[in-house]
Structure formats: C-alpha cells, structure tokens
Amino acid sequence: MYILGLNTFHGDSSACLFKDDQLIMAIEEERLRRIKHWAGFPSQAIAACLNDAGISVKDLDHITVSKNPSANLFKKITHTLLKHKKLSTIIDRLTQSKKVTSIKALLAKEFGVNESEIKAEVHNIEHHRSHMASTFLVSPFDEAAILSIDGFGDFSSTMIGVGKGTQMEVFDSVIYPHSIGAFYTAFTQFLGFMSYGDEYKVMGLAPYGEAKYVELFEDIIYLTNDGLFKLNEKYFKHSKEGVTMSWEDGYPSIEPMFSDYMLEKLGKNREKGEELTQYHKDLAASAQKMTEKAIFHILNHLQKRTGLKKICIAGGVAQNSVANGKIYLETGFDDIYMPPAATDAGTAIGSALYFYNTELGNQRVAPMLSANYGQRFTNEQIEEALKDRNVSFEIKTDDEINTLVADSLVEGGVIGWFKDRSEFGPRALGYRSILADPTRHDAKEILNLKIKKREPFRPFAPSIMEEHVSEYFEQTDTVRFMEKVFQIKEEKRKDLPAVTHVDGSGRLQSVSKQINPKYYNMIAAFYKKTGIPIVLNTSFNENEPIVNTPAEALDCYLRTKMDVLVMENYVVKR
C-alpha cells in the first residue's frame, strides 16, 4: 500500500510517501523550489517522493491531505457573518478550500495523466489531528498526552488530547480567532520582522531584554480556568477586519496582525531596518515570557487531567525551543517527544499516519529518531557537479575527512558538511550543516562575515556527543532535533563562547553514534584533538532554504568564504 501525504496550499508545503509502515521519503517543497516556506501545491516534492520509490502517480493507493474544509464549518460561517469579514478574505478562503478538494485533478495535470488513471482515494484529515498524529504516532510512547499548538489550521489554533496505541482522543480545542501563534506573529511583526516565519528572531532577541511588560501582556492573553486561553481581540486585526495571506508565486506573506489599539497601548511599531532599542528587546522578552506562561498553563492542566507523565507536542509554536527547554522545570511531565518537523510541513506525515493507524487500525510505525528522510545523492552525482564547475577535489576516506575537518576547525576554518539524505524539517542536524569551532571567541563574527550575514543577536547551536550532555548542560535529555534550549553549566560557558547565548543558554543537538554515525565520528575526532565533544552547527545556506543538492552546496561554498566543503567522500579546499 502506497500512501502519499501532503501539506498543500499552506506555508511549508511538503510531501511524504509511505509504503505500508515504511516512510520512504519526506521533503519540503522549499528545498526544491529554493523559496523559503514555499506555499502552494508541492508538485516537485511529490515527484521527488515518487522517483525515490520508483513508482508513478498511478501506483498510489491513498492520498492524505492535512486540511479538511468541512472541519468547524458552522463556526467558520457564523464567525464570517457576525464579524462582517472583507469580501476578499471570504473569496480567498473559498478558493483555497476548492483547491484542496481537487487534488486528483491537480495531480493529473502535473504528471500528464488522465484523472481516471489515478486510482488513489483522497482523504482530508483535520489540520490539528494531523499535527497530533505527526508527533504521537511516531513517538516511542504507547500512551501519552498530546498538544498541537500553532497559528491556525481548519479554524483552530490548539488541540489537546491523549493517545493510546493507534488511537487518539481529542479533549478540547481553541477556535479562531484565539491563538498563541497569532499572538507571537503579531509581536514579531510589531518588532519589524515582517517575513513569514520570522518568529525565531524574536526568540533569539528576547534574552537581550527584561520581561518588564508581562502584566500588560496578561491583558492581551487571558489564561482560562479550563486550561486554555483567549486573546483580547482589541489588540489584533484578524478577528474583525480579517488579514490577507498571500501565496503569490509560492512566497507566503501575511498582513500585519496588530491593531491600532495595540499601537495606542505600546507605541509605534518598529519598521524593518530601524534600530533595535532596549524597549524592543524588553517587548521581545515579555512576549516570550507570556508565551511560556500560556504553554505551561495548558500543559499543567493537561497533565493533571490525564495523570500521564509523557507528552507529545507539535505545531508551529512547538518550534519555540526556549519554552520547550523549560517544560521539565515548569510542568508535571517528565518525558517529551517532538518530531523533527513540528511545523506544518510535518502534517504531511501526520495526515498519512492518521489514516494508516487511526482510521485503518494498522500497527504503529517505528519511532522517528532521525530527520534524514529527504533526498540522497551518490558519489557519482557529486563528482559530476564538481566537474561541471571545473572545481578541483580530493577523494578521502571517512577517517581522513574527520581528521582534516578537526584540524581545519581548530585553525578557525568554516566547513560545509553534506552527508546522506537531507533533513526533513527546519533544522540542520548534521546532514546539511555548516560547522565551526565552538571554543573560538571570534567564531560568530567569522560566520556572519564569511557566510550567514544575519542579525548579530541570533545564536548558533552546539552539536554534542550525546554521552557528554550532562557534563555541559544543567539538564540532561536526549535532544535529537534541536527542539530544546538548556542552560549551559556556568563553569563551561567560558569554553564555549561561540554557542553560548547571552543568557547562558544553548539550543543543543545530542548526536547519537547509532543514528548519525558520520556526524558523530567527526565530532569525536574534534573531541580527540581538543577535549571538547561539541561543534558549532548552523544550517548550510546563505539567506535561502537549506541546500539540498550537491550543486547548491557547491554554489553556496563558492560564493561565500567557507574554507572546506565535504560532500560524502569528496573534499574541496580553498
């Protein structure tokens, strides 16, 4: 049985392909189109999945879509009529719903077949049920509480419940216009970060400020006695006026969500490019703190309601790794699972598994402990890309490469690291990464000068051999997907200036020799040379989606000032 799972006509469009209980491939359209957070029909991602499996669209048995136009339909109609929404907003929503219902027609057009030749049934799975499935059904837990929390999907922003075996029970949900994701996005925009997906910049900025305005923010988000929340709608535009979301040519964008009332209360918003003042930093700290309060409020009520100690979390807000790192400290949960793609991209997998496990009752798939489900390229393809650009290269063994990389890192070198399949999800996890020495005080400046050219307040992440986590971090946990930020031990911070944020924290990735042996062994070579079991890891890109192909990796290397490029067993040096 082949199941194609889709997140379509939404930011972070993606596709995945299952053969029975085996995930063959999962990839975001942005990696192929080279447009961040690409939105629309993920035709290239679909083609990549089919090609990887050696099948055609006619071989598919089922297609699942992580959107159900019928979900909360009465509430949608009622809200639209009561709030007198703009006609353009209503037309846009109807258009998007119509596209979702014509998946087979779109597939037939894209792949040059008659619609009648596509035997697969199309199944629309509610957005948040897809999120819930994307975490619980790939977790190592047989029973757990579940939280899906993001901006909006199918007129809902939050869903809580419990999973056991292959089944999930939904307890409650938060309906539009109330949303923690919308709250965080509005403040992201207020602070002058206007691109779709810029919320992580606010998270990085927050430690530079003090959470002085939490009391004011408690007038913006009300934490309710049922363990959920409501927004004070006066601060936002999306409830009454509507906010237009555009997907022109695949570029997702959203109009400012904050209202004139917010401007009255907080003053003028920061325009893009304006100086970041201490007031802006304090607002960022306050927004982060209020978000954490809301998340812990939901989780504590959910834990008491279920009595369970294990929690599975997904949704865009679940990418807030600072909040995630405090869950053990602030709630009654003592075991957490989050998938590598907690974003909407992951709902492609979630919709497929909801159908396969929950609706069909099939046995659970193996736990998802790795993120490398994207495209793989052979040594022959890598060599062809190098020869096409007339680039000199060397072929080395893995041990030779690890020694070379360790030596280069110590000398202040910046390494492009390209191995195995690309990652599924927003984080570079040692398959498409840029590496540097975490002990160098100048490493951040070198990276921003040579490659990244990004805001100086944004931190870089430490990848650490998993058995050494307790030596360097105040909390010990398995953090495979950079989903948590922990405090670095005070006495170790001086040794790790390049990956220690201003508040003493680090967004770690614990690296397993069993799961990612090539990356682990390279870090081990650096450890043998320096006594430090950590490398600085950042995504392999330059203001673009993470590189996917050898040609893209080579282009990024050539136009920046990286010192060494490693692609499988091929090495390029300046």
Question: What is the gist of this entry?
Answer:
Helices cover 35% and strands 20% of the residues. By secondary structure, it is of the alpha/beta class.
Secondary structure elements and pairings:
Elements: E1 2-7, E2 14-19, E3 22-28, H1 29-33, H2 43-53, E4 62-65, H3 73-83, H4 87-100, H5 103-111, E5 121-124, H6 127-136, E6 143-153, E7 156-164, E8 167-175, H7 180-190, H8 199-205, H9 214-217, E9 221-223, E10 229-231, E11 245-246, E12 253-254, H10 260-266, H11 278-306, E13 310-314, H12 321-324, H13 327-330, E14 335-337, H14 347-359, H15 379-388, E15 394-395, H16 398-410, E16 415-418, E17 432-436, H17 443-452, E18 461-465, H18 469-472, E19 485-487, E20 505-507, E21 509-511, H19 517-530, E22 534-539, H20 550-559, E23 564-567, E24 570-573
Parallel strand pairs: 1-4, 4-5, 6-13, 13-14, 16-23, 18-21
Antiparallel strand pairs: 1-2, 2-3, 6-7, 7-8, 9-10, 11-12, 15-24, 16-17, 17-22, 18-22, 19-20, 23-24
Helix pairs in contact: 6-14, 7-11, 16-19
